[in-house]
């Protein structure tokens, strides 16, 4: 039985180390086509990355495939319909990155509210002796809208609540046993909120959901944070809103094109950029890699899988 890994994982240890066995990495093979022609028929486990799913046509070349173990929470790059039709189990490690991603979202919100990015540059440029930095805004009493209310969205809401924010959310339907305000319409959430954090999956249903109309509803004092998928935000509309003063500020950890960002983002005012670091802690990434290895061992030993999609 062969295990195949699509791309190196951004983790302290790779599956080959955790499993103590060779795991070929497709992106590092000298001749992937020849390797697949010779070994594809014996591959039963495939390791994917939330940002690097199976390349087009790969699943068809793995007729014996029984498990796709995904590193990360995002599964929008995996053809789930094909997997289900062929009886291929798919696992993801979403629970393991919830708190680190939610922590980043809170940090980005507070950075925007208090102007911490500008404050650092203000001190380094020697401006402190020439006068005070413009005042920031308190988190307490702000209205936080959470766009998407799964595990991470709820964790962000609880962090916002802890610093005194009022919470509302949008999801496809109200979440049971949650007291937070529910908005059935994303635009209504944007009109109500002072800060919106995006926690939606990628895919056609959410493509450019945050567009000019959404940003205008959020308004000139509004703040936007995206720690989900870059495809959800119309980046040109976002930059235009920031340049025109129709939006107060934004923080992006994810982008439509990674790692080569659209140049307009680099020149936009009041925009905080981070290089997709939501889960980028030693602890989370090691736990995510171990989750992949644990599920492969469970598959080999006939035990139940963890984090089935």
Question: How would you describe the overall organization of this protein?
Answer:
Keywords: NAD, NADP, Oxidoreductase. It holds the Pfam family 2-Hacid_dh. It comes from Rhizorhabdus histidinilytica. GO terms for molecular function: glyoxylate reductase (NADPH) activity; hydroxypyruvate reductase [NAD(P)H] activity; NAD binding. Residues 41-308 form the D-isomer specific 2-hydroxyacid dehydrogenase catalytic domain. This protein folds into two domains: 2-96 and 282-301, 3-Layer(aba) Sandwich (Rossmann fold), CATH 3.40.50; 138-273, NAD(P)-binding Rossmann-like Domain (Rossmann fold, 3-Layer(aba) Sandwich). Helices cover 34% and strands 15% of the residues. It has a seven-stranded parallel β-sheet, with helices on both faces. A four-stranded parallel β-sheet has the order 1-2-3-4, with helices on both faces. The protein starts with a strand and ends in an 8-residue tail after the last helix. The protein has helices at residues 15-19, 32-39, 80-86, 98-114, 116-124, 151-162, 186-192, 212-218, 235-244, 263-266, 282-301, and strands spanning 2-5, 43-49, 67-71, 89-91, 143-147, 166-170, 181-182, 195-198, 223-226, 249-252, 271-273. Helix 9 links the parallel strand 9 and strand 10 (249-252). The chain is an alpha/beta fold. Helix 4 (98-114) packs across helix 6 (151-162) and helix 7 runs parallel beside helix 8. It is built from eleven helices and eleven strands.
């Amino acid at each position: 039985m062969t295990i195949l890994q699509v791309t190196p994982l951004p983790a302290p240890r790779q599956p080959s180390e955790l499993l103590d066995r060779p795991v070929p990495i497709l992106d590092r093979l000298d001749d992937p086509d020849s390797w697949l022609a010779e070994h594809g028929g014996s591959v039963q486990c495939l390791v994917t990355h939330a940002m690097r799913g199976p390349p087009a046509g790969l699943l068809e070349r793995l007729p014996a495939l029984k498990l796709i173990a995904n590193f990360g929470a995002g599964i929008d790059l995996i053809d789930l319909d094909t997997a289900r039709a062929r009886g291929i189990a798919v696992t993801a490690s979403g629970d393991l990155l919830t708190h680190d991603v939610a922590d980043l979202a809170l940090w980005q919100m507070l950075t925007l509210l208090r102007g911490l990015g500008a404050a650092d540059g203000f001190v380094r440029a020697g401006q402190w002796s020439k006068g005070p930095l413009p005042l920031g805004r308190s988190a307490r009493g702000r209205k936080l809208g959470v766009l998407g209310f799964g595990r991470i969205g709820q964790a962000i809401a609880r962090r916002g609540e802890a610093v005194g924010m009022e919470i509302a959310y949008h999801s496809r339907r109200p979440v049971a046993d949650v007291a937070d305000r529910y908005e059935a319409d994303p635009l209504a959430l944007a009109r109500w909120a002072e800060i919106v954090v995006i926690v939606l999956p990628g895919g056609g249903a959410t493509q450019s959901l945050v567009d000019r109309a959404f940003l205008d509803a959020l308004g000139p004092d509004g703040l936007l944070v995206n720690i989900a998928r870059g495809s959800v935000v119309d980046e040109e509309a976002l930059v235009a809103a920031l340049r025109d003063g129709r939006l107060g500020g934004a923080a992006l950890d994810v982008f439509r094109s990674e790692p080569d960002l659209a140049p307009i983002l680099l020149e936009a005012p009041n925009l905080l950029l981070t290089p997709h670091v939501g889960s980028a802690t030693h602890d989370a990434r090691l736990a995510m890699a171990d989750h992949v290895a644990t599920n492969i061992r469970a598959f080999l030993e006939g035990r139940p899988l963890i984090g089935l999609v």
